[in-house]
Amino acid sequence: MRIVGAQQMQEIDRRTSQDFGLDAQVLMELAGRCVSDWLQSRCPQGRVAFLCGPGNNGGDGLVAARAWADLGGRAVVFLMSEDLKGDALRNLQRARAWQMDLRPLDEFQPDGFDWFVDSLFGTGLSRPLHLPPLFMLPQDRTVAVDIPSGIHADTGQVLGQAVRAHTTITFGTPKLGQLLALEHCGQLVIEPIGFPRRQLESEEWPGQWLTPELARQWLPARGTASHKANTGKVLVVAGSSRYPGAGALATLGALRSGAGLVYHYGPPQVRLPLEAIPLLSKGDSLVAADLPMLLEHLQDMDALCLGPGLGDAPETLALVRQLLEKAQVPAVVDADALRALPEKLSPKILLTPHAGELARLLRCKAADTEKDRLRHAVQTARNYNCTVLFKGPATLVATAGGRYAVSTQGTSVLAQGGSGDVLSGICAALLAQGLDALQAGALGAYLQGSAGRLSGVSVGLGAEALAHHLPAAITSLTP
Hints:
Number of strands: 17
Structural class: alpha/beta
Strand order of the largest sheet: 1-9-17-16-15-14-13-12-10-11
CATH class of the largest domain: Alpha Beta
Distance between the termini: 20 Å
Oligomer: single chain
Number of helices: 19
Radius of gyration: 25 Å
Strand content: 15-25%
């Protein structure tokens, strides 16, 4: 499913009205009625407070209030302003003609209402909010129209303060800020109110949300004639005497994600409960003398996983740099290997930094990267001519050309040491099975999140146990 930003959605609105003849007032009517229909399924004929702002988002709320009253519900509208324009003004006039209960926003108190509708500000908001009513809305009984007020539609950042909603009802297609702020959006409901499908699915919109349907499309196919030599061969270069577990977990992630053959190159302290995994090295750390052997092995490999737990010894980082300069196969580069990147990489290379690592690559503060995740991911991809997976609750994968994909399968069970090592192995296995770097990164994050969800726990699973749930996550996508 395509993802758009605020300006892109405005362009879709414009084309729908001008090129396809569907009037903006009709779209507003349909949007508002979607909200009232949703309320009807939750609290038939209940008392609902509609908080309406001065723009089109407020107009949607006015339609929803009128439609709710028509369904027999009790609607009270709290207006931030009566100085409305265009379609929003027309719906305010209709509300007056319907003799609806209209009150100023500063009279709002939450007592006595079953549900609350937030239609104060929509996707066009770009300034900080300081509105006391936003603090009063109970999350478990608030539905937001299009986007919770106070959330930036392009970055997901909280602008001063923001509503936390039980459900957000949006229209046509998701907006990036919604996916990056799901803690505020709650359940995201996407309603098709009449936008032409070919507009919503146009390839000129560079973002994609990894829904189960898209994940199923991207999942590498396996036929009855598949065997270990044609389902992907991965070389994992990871681990050290100090961090032996990282190499083990990355290797396990690759194996459990469908790679036919996985080889591990690291110190002998790394041991797996899988005796079939070849352990190729002898020393306690990687040195430049290992390069010819690694390059020879890579000639027969489909993908490389490089970095988890390698450490930052100078001789190790020197080897990483040389390996990335000379290796020809697609590769996942994670953790310590991110400290030794050449100036330019290949679009087949997938970097997998968290916020701190991305900040180091961009020479800025980690908090700054979180303020505009897409911009910083794309900038890093362009700097190194590669693809970047920016880890987070919503994992964002971006290319140097500006294409991006978002997985929202993240879960609290992933918030533990070792989960990133498993993710590196997953992505490497998907690269080895023929996916490009964008697909491998986004689908890898999706499968890891699904494995965490299928575990049935929220904390304490352990990264090794997480890896063992990967086959179930993959099977859940197959017919």
